[in-house]
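Example record

One chain of 68 residues, shown exactly as stored in the release files.
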Amino acid sequence: MTRVETTPKQDGTLKLDGLPFHAGETVEVIIRLKAARNDHKRYPLRNTPVSYADPFEPVAAEDWEAAQ
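Predicted structure tokens for this chain:
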């Protein structure tokens, strides 16, 4: 599968250069509008730094009966 992004010209034509196919091969072309990425609204914490103060310390050990 090959993905190519391009913008239509004023007359509505698209030009695709450098495709990895040979002359005479049958290919399927699917054209869809590229949606704007609004991940910051769906996932507001994406790409925010994460840090752990004591990553190997037990958490809520006093809450476990088996730990005593």
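Notes: The helical segments are 39-42.
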